[in-house]
Amino acid sequence: MKLYVSSHAPNPRRVTMFIAEKGITGIENVTIDILAGEQHSESFVAKNPLARVPALELDDGRVLCETRAICSYLEGLYPEPNLMGEGFEERAFIEMADRRAELHLFAQIANSARHTHPALAALEKPQFPDFGASQGEKVREGARWLDGALANHPYVAGHRFTIADITAFCALEFARGLLKFKPGAEGFNNLQEWRDRIAARPSVGRP
Amino acid sequence: MKLYVSSHAPNPRRVTMFIAEKGITGIENVTIDILAGEQHSESFVAKNPLARVPALELDDGRVLCETRAICSYLEGLYPEPNLMGEGFEERAFIEMADRRAELHLFAQIANSARHTHPALAALEKPQFPDFGASQGEKVREGARWLDGALANHPYVAGHRFTIADITAFCALEFARGLLKFKPGAEGFNNLQEWRDRIAARPSVGRP
User: Fold this and answer.
1) Does residue A82 form part of some domain?
2) CA nearest to B143, candidates B171, B162, B121
3) CA-CA to B21 of 20 to 30 Å: which in A1, A128, B127, B148?
4) Structure confidence by residue, pLDDT tens digits, A127-155
């Protein structure tokens, strides 16, 4: 299998961190330079008509796209350690936590960065800086929710590490790099403690 | 079980259509008036701290939120007819199609409506009309992708009706109501034919 990724982009990082947590080896990483527009090349669009990374090319030539769908596939192929739930009930509750991290934290961070950061002007045309700036408050709203949740349990979805931790961690790493957002500096101390705990995992790799 | 919904909102509709396709009976619907702000009431926030519908209250008192997570749970409880895939490989490919419908069509429609429609000013504070207007082209981009995909197979995820059809249909219904968006009028004839075919399903109920 080949995994199409991009340096510094948060969604490919979710998949590579998921792979590292599973200890999966043998998937070849192919880097697409999205700031240079390589995702719009004829050869890549033939793999993903929506011109986005990550994308997983299977050995039979089919291409599976969308971050969480790729993780679902890999979870099926490599069930251990379980990161997405055992049985449908736990799977549903972990999916809830993962979607909350994605829709109420990751999306706002991405909107904020894409509409305000000069380095992302090539990806978001046109940028709407006022809209982007307004997302800063929404990032804090999402962080406030997660900070409160982490007062009750040590991981995003509950008592153990799951895909929801990967989603929230990669979102915060993106916010740290582009928005200079640090949970502790905003008073979100549970979130900062959790972030530092996740950052120490071997799957995180180099910063 | 109790399902918290809201009239006219597209996400609760995804769940009620999913339930209708399954033929599940016995779930009590409780309407939350989101334009009047009922989702921010103390009693509802105790159920969902993120103050959003849909939310599914289980008989043991736990509350499962997030549209697709609720569907995953119901798919596990009521496996037939299968709407989310048999086995991990089909599940992953249907999840890909569902996420594409959500992230590349539904989200743009929601952004466009929330930032431009006077009726939604209570939900989106502040609105950014220029940003909202720019999402119109992104809606067309998503529609163009789906129109092309439907040239190759009769349903969003492939050869059979799945949750991805529900997501895309509820997105287009929202766009029809608030943005007056009609695929056929934009030249997306495959999408219009598919939309009309889905609209004839009994699960759609009254318009």
Assistant:
1) no
2) B171
3) B148
4) 998 898 888 899 999 999 999 999 999 99
